[in-house]
Amino acid sequence: MVGQAACGASASASYKNYAGFVPAFVLILDVVISFIDESPSSGEWQQTTNVTCHITVETLEGNPVSGVKYRIASEGADEAVFSPWRSDAVIETTYSGSEVRFQAAIPGAALDSFAEGQDNFIQWRAKNSGGVEAFSGKYRVRVMANDAPEIAILQPDEKSGVASDRLFVEAQLTDACWGIDENSVELKLDDANNSNIALVTSAANPGIYSAPSGKVSYTYAGAPLAPGATYKLTVSATDKNGKNSSSVLSFKLLGGAIPDIVPYPSPFDPKKESVAIRYVLRKDSGVSINVYDMSGRLVKEVIDNEPRKAGTCEDTWTGRNYAGEGLANGVYFCEVVATDDEGEHRRYSSLAIFGK
Description:
Radius of gyration: 37 Å
Number of strands: 24
Largest sheet: 5 strands, antiparallel
């Protein structure tokens, strides 16, 4: 660190210049006080408003430090917001008679305190045995805001709903200041009447939370959820300083064995791209996908009884028929057939070919 120096002045009436002239008043810059190695540095972030500040004071030999004071501010560096000067700083290390390191624990005896944020400052004031007094610069002290944990529920999706009764929950937890208490994570699943269906904690099930990644992962394995019903998921966590927060999400369990089917892009140009057929399955199923023209004639079997897992699935079609020929521009119909333990289920969607 570059020290900050203050110069003391002494007067002499007997100092003569080379011409023998005795000036009425001469300033002799013979005493210097420097402030070095302030801690914490302005680039460091403190995790709490309880901060111990340090400074090393240097003086010229023969003029040891006779006293040190400090003052702090938590609302900026304006003079009006600083505390009175405090004299409870203590000697941390004496390197020599002219170099001493001091420390001040904040809050001190006067209970002056820093605040969360970047508007905290401390200034030091030193005096040497020659009566010279100096002031340091105003050093910034940054304190992290001890906010409660941030919780982002990634799955399920509140807008699109949930297709599978094997609900998968994924959430991201962050707490920049103290970190998440690994035993505090809780998942709560309620129905529309606020009756609890499941309550899972990381204390009892440590596998649901990964501290290195901050990820929560859990697959519901209880009684089957009811298609068409609305449920409420609450994810909560506490940081290591005791602050708690929760995130709540309501979602609907989509009805039917194939709750949704979306071909995209549509229209598409087979000369440039394929069409993706995205669909949702409520259960693990054997899936067939067929494409028909406007007359109802089968033009292509995309897949035939292929196993697919519950949830969102995707298969592609090139826009060509059985013979590998390109099809004419127009509207076609996509059929998804899913066979599960309850039988065979079908759902249809239109798609369009528009090539140039």
